[in-house]
Amino acid sequence: MSGTNMASGDIDPNWPPPAYEPSDDVDTTPPNPPSGPARSARGVWLVAAFLAVVAVVALVIVAVVVFSGKPRPGAGPSAAPATAPSNPPTTTSTAPAGPCGPDEATAVSAALAQLPADKKTGKAWNPTPEFSDYDPCADLSAVVVTVVDATRSSPDQALMFHRGAFVGTATAVAYPFTELEVPASTDDLVVLTYRSRQSCDACDDGTLTTVGFQWQGDHVQMLDPPRSRWTHRRDPPHPAEPSPTPTLNGA
Q1: Which portions of the sequence form the region Disordered (predicted)?
Q2: Could you tell me the residue ranges of all domains in the chain?
């Protein structure tokens, strides 16, 4: 606009201004890529970043390996398997050789089936044991029985068993007050006590005689029989009355 004053209704012939046109003096040459120190700095940064990534990956791998090698909480070190000895020690079996017999009730029933009734009372034998150390696997065990409806002075009889098989009675004559000493008996030894010459049938005085019976190969042998000969009907067994070897079927 010129310095001449224009009326408000006049239009400036120079308006609008002409569109912008680049001057020939403007440098239109595109910039060249960076070179020199700037380019070198960028390359160094890229290399450093790559090395940092590699280092992080390496640390992760090392951490995984170390963690996997640690024992889990609560899990102890696994025990090394025991090495079996080349020559294991031999153990000696304590089980008796040979077969074992039936249970006690069956063995007693089979034994009493072979015995006649008591000669003195005429009564049958009661299968319920008074004393017993019956062992179906022992070389010698015994069961002491009395007669049916017995009294304190009724006769008793000791049934002898070898591995559960009935091998006879301790004596041919049945004696009252016969007891089995279980604590003194062993796998091949039976110890019986005979009480005689009491002042009364219910009395525990008199003479107590202990007699052992042992299994010897194929028979029962009376051990240390009484030295003197008793004549009283209640005296304990004597080697001559009856025979020291237990008898079968009351013979």
Answers
A1: 1-39, 72-104, 222-251
A2: 104-223
Residue with tokens 């000696």: 92
Quick one: which H or E segment has residue 11? none
DSSP state string for 134-172? --TTSSSEEEEEEBTT--TTSEEEEEEEETTEEEEES-S
3-state secondary structure at position 78 = coil
Total Cβ atoms within 10 A of residue 154: 19
176 SS3 class: strand
Give the pLDDT score at 24.
52
Q: Give the chain's mean pLDDT.
A: 74
DSSP class of residue 24 equals T
Q: Which two tokens stand for residue 118?
A: 């008591």
Question: Are the C-beta atoms of 140 and 159 separated by less than 8 Å?
Answer: no
pLDDT digits (tens, 9 = 90+) for 14-38: 656 555 555 555 555 665 655 555 5
Instruction: Round the CA-based radius of gyration of the chain to a whole number and report it.
Output: 58
Secondary structure (3-state) at 124: coil
